[in-house]
Each structure stands twice: as C-alpha cells, then as structure tokens.
C-alpha cells in the first residue's frame, strides 16, 4: 500500500458535514436541489456543514429542519464517510444519522437552494440513482436498510 502523499502548500482542511436519513413507513425524505457546479436538479438527504461551536447532533437536526421543514428525533449513527467531490476537488468528511420525523414545522422557510422535498420508497430512489448529488446518498439509504446502527453516545463532544 502506498502511503506517500504529494506535498501540500497549505493545510488540508476537509469540510465537515452531516446528513440525516429520515425514514417513515418505508419512505425516505430526500431534498431536491440545484447542483451549484452543473446546474442540474439533484437529490440528497437533508445535509450540510457543521457550524463553529455546534455539535454534530445539533447540526444534523438544524440542517434537516432548514432543508426540509421537518423536526426529527435522531435514532443513531449510520456511519462516516470521506468523499472527494470530482466537481470541485473538495474532500468532505460526512457523519450520517438515522432519524424519525416528529413534525413538519408549519410555515418553515427552506434554504434557498432547496427546490422541493420528497418522500420516496427504495424503488423510487433506485430509479433516480443517476440524479443523486453523490454516491453517498444511495449508500446512506442502503446503510439504513441494512439495519446497522451505532449508538449516538459513540460521539463525544468537548465544545
């Protein structure tokens, strides 16, 4: 295994993100958004960047609410992933949660990038797989379907 890496001119900061797989009665909540690089309409879980001083748990709940209008209860951790986006070369470190919906907030104003929200079953997601924002979207749904779930207290926050 090659452990040599090319020298870097500046520190390498991966972008820390969260995503939430919201599951209810065999359907998954996906948001439809416009890809900032290609302009294409793509599907994603509610997801976004960790803000300074924020826990990963709080970020997941906040991003889900901002992007879908849904308040959720986090049930566990689905996993962690590193992804280098071919469109911009940015590396993302993503923590993915499983959640159940609690309530849709009346009058919620969604992030400007969100075009629509959808509750899709697995077959519908597979049919749209070419329109997923990244391979992480389908992988997260498949992680949820596998039943593997890590406890939330596996995360430690010392903020």
Describe this structure as you would to a colleague.
This protein has 159 residues and is α+β, with helices and mostly antiparallel strands. It has one domain: Alpha-Beta Complex (Nucleoside Triphosphate Pyrophosphohydrolase). It has three helices and seven strands; from the N terminus they run ββββαβββαα. The protein has helices at 56-68, 122-127, 135-146, and strands at residues 15-24, 27-34, 41-44, 47-49, 70-84, 91-104, 114-121. Strands 1, 2, 3, 4, 5, 6 and 7 form a seven-stranded mixed beta sheet that branches. Strand 2 and strand 3 (41-44) form a beta hairpin. The longest helix has 13 residues, at 56-68. The model has no long low-confidence stretch (mean pLDDT 92).
Approximate helicity band: 10-25%
Give the tally of structural domains: 1
CATH homologous superfamily annotation: Nucleoside Triphosphate Pyrophosphohydrolase
Shape: globular
Question: What is the highest CATH level, the class?
Answer: Alpha Beta
Spans of 5+ residues with little confidence (pLDDT < 50)?
A: none
Q: Please state the CA-atom Rg, rounded to the nearest Å.
A: 16 Å
Q: Can you give the mean pLDDT?
A: 92
Beta-strand content estimate: 35-45%
CATH topology: Nucleoside Triphosphate Pyrophosphohydrolase
By helix and strand content, what is the structural category? alpha+beta
Helix count equals 3
CATH architecture: Alpha-Beta Complex
Instruction: Give the CA-CA distance, first to last residue.
Output: 36 Å
Q: Report the major sheet.
A: 7 strands, mixed
- Element-level helix/strand string: EEEEHEEEHH
How many strands in all?
A: 7
């Amino acid at each position: 295994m090659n452990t040599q890496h090319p020298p870097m001119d500046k520190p390498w900061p991966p972008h820390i993100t969260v995503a939430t797989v919201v599951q209810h009665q065999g359907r998954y909540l996906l948001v439809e958004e416009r890809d900032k690089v290609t302009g294409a309409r793509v599907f994603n879980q509610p997801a976004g960047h960790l803000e300074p001083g924020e826990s990963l748990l709080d970020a997941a709940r906040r991003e889900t609410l901002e992007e879908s209008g849904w308040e959720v209860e986090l049930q566990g951790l689905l996993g962690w992933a590193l992804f280098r986006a071919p469109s911009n070369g940015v590396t993302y470190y993503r923590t993915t949660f499983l959640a159940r919906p609690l309530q849709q907030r009346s009058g919620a104003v969604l992030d400007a990038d969100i075009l629509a929200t959808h509750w899709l079953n697995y077959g519908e997601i597979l049919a749209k797989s070419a329109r997923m924002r990244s391979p992480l979207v389908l992988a997260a749904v498949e992680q949820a379907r596998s039943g593997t779930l890590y406890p939330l207290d596996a995360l430690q926050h010392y903020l």
